[in-house]
Amino acid sequence: MSESTTHERDPLRTTFHTLALALECAREAAPLIKRFKRTNKEIASQLDRALIRACLGIGEANKREGGNKSLRFRTARGEANEALIALMVAEAIGLATRDELTPLAKKLDKLVAYLGKLAR
User: What is the rounded distance in angstroms from the CA atom of residue 118 to the CA atom of residue 22?
Assistant: First the structure.
């Protein structure tokens, strides 16, 4: 039986919209992070770590129950906001143009808003 006919679940895909958005941000940021590493390793590292921690925190929160769930979403929100601030700094110090960063910044802003709602 082929994989397409067995309807197996793809373990590398999520149906949780907020996590999917966070992963999309990480994918979109990857070329920027690679480029930033050549000129400013600190910004590259901050952006990279913040996106990784946001994605992992969302994934962890999604499978939790009770009070820890909202705490994990709040922490992930802080990480997503840190990634957004890293983009602001990157633009401010000339690592990238506003036009280059705006599409990703808009997605991160939306992610921060989603996580704010989930953290309540």
Answer: 14
**Of the candidates 74, 30, 85, which has an alpha carbon nearest to the alpha carbon of residue 52?**
30
Within its chain, how far is the Cα of 4 from the centroid?
Answer: 30
Per residue in 80-114, pLDDT tens?
Answer: 999 999 999 999 999 999 999 999 999 999 999 99
Domains defined along the chain, listed by start: 15-118 (1.20.1440.60)
Give the separation between CA 22 and CA 4, rounded to whole angstroms. 27
Tokens of 39: 């000129």
Digit-by-digit pLDDT tens for the chain (120 residues) are 455 556 788 887 888 899 999 999 999 999 999 999 999 999 999 999 999 999 999 999 998 877 789 999 999 999 999 999 999 999 999 999 999 999 999 999 999 999 999 998
33 Cβ contact list (under 8 Å, min separation 6) = 44, 47, 48
- What sign for the dihedral angle of Cα 9, 65, 18, 59? negative
